[in-house]
Specification:
Bound molecules: fe (ii) ion
Number of strands: 5
Number of helices: 14
Order of helices and strands: HHEEHEEEHHHHHHHHHHH
Largest sheet: 5 strands, antiparallel
Strand content: 5-15%
Helix content: 55-70%
Structural class: alpha+beta
Strand order of the largest sheet: 2-1-5-4-3
CATH class of the largest domain: Alpha Beta
CATH architecture of the largest domain: 2-Layer Sandwich
CATH topology of the largest domain: Beta-Lactamase
Radius of gyration: 56 Å
Shape: rod-shaped
CATH superfamily of the largest domain: PAS domain
Length: about 450
Amino acid sequence: MERRGRLSLAWRIGFAIVLVESVVLAVLGLIYTQRFAAAVDARVESQALLPGRLFNTGVLRFEAIADPETMQQVVGEQLVAGLIVSTAGVILLADHPAMVGRDVADVGLFDREALLSAAAAPSVQQREKSIIALTPIYATGQTTPQFFSYVEMDTSAALAEKTANLGLFITGSVGTLLATSFIIFLSFRLLVLRRLSRSVDALGRFEGGDLSSRVPVYRSRDEVFALEKGINSMAARVERTVAELSASLNRTEQTLEATVKVLANAVAIRDLYTEAHQRRVAELAVRIGERLSLSDDELKGLRVSAFLHDIGKIAVPVEILTKPKRLTGVEFSIIQNHPLVAYDILRDVPFPWPVARIIRQHHERLDGSGYPDGISGDAILVEARILAVADVVEAMTSDRPYRPGLGMDRALEEIKSKRCVAYDSRVVDACIAICSDPDFEFAERGSSITA
Ligand SMILES: [Fe+2]
């Protein structure tokens, strides 16, 4: 459970880090931006109240309020309006002469109640795009104000400053979150995805036949580690099983080989010629099969079939087999029965190849003129077609009780003359190519069957 949980735990921790970081950044952002905004507002308010304080300390004269340039030097570029108002609400001085002598309520700046409520101390009113500061002004030795300084300042620049600061903080926060997420993603990629890719590569090699392929194990004791170990354990077991099966198959093939040898020897005891004939036909048939690109498995079946192809002749009396004269019709019929006898002997043997059928067909001909079934064309197995040609060539080149060997040229002439009629053209061409090679010759008749 511990191994299975580590990576999931790490992933959850990474997710929690990003989540906590998001919350912390949001809270910090809220506090910081609020404080920043408050500081900006305080600065603006201080600027707005500054003219009143200067009046009270005598630094500014009343007349200065009517001079926009002087007021702008005091409050900065943001000045909208500067007035001196009496406690009765009459405008005494203004940067706009038309406003002098008018009631503050009439010009819509603020009402008299607001003016009186602000009498005790400086006050500030926030409006949508500006700030208004009212500062009571005292005459020397007086405890109640005689005038008010009214200053209105544009707050667009302050608002833009606060917005820019908020944007900067959001950009920084998002960048920090992205960087953290990327670091977590990169760590996950290094720790997990790269290892998974190596596992997939190893599995691909294993699937491609490299049974010794293993996954490099990274000892992290997490889920991927369990997967890597599992794959290697499974691969080792499969490799071991395949080795055992291969050894078992080898033993089976050796047993099969020995069985074929025993059967061939049984033929040899009665008829040495037939035993040697089968061995030499097998030699030529396999070479033809190789030239026709038969698979290794098909070649094994062809070789075994060739070794046993005349085993049915054990049912033919020796006198007929070794008769030095021309055979009678009856004797020839007995001889022609040998493919069926072989089939009956071998049909229940569980060869991994169709040996019994190949042998039954080895005297069939492409045009249907053969025996015992008279089948033709593609109905004849390719191994039987090869066997037919190798059989004829070996038989014609060998000495028989009733005639000496006819020679390779006559044998090749025979199969060439019946190419495409009795014999498969590709098989004939391959046989001619092999037997025309000056280096080709059949093995000696005394050679062992297992050679
Ligand atoms: Fe035969």
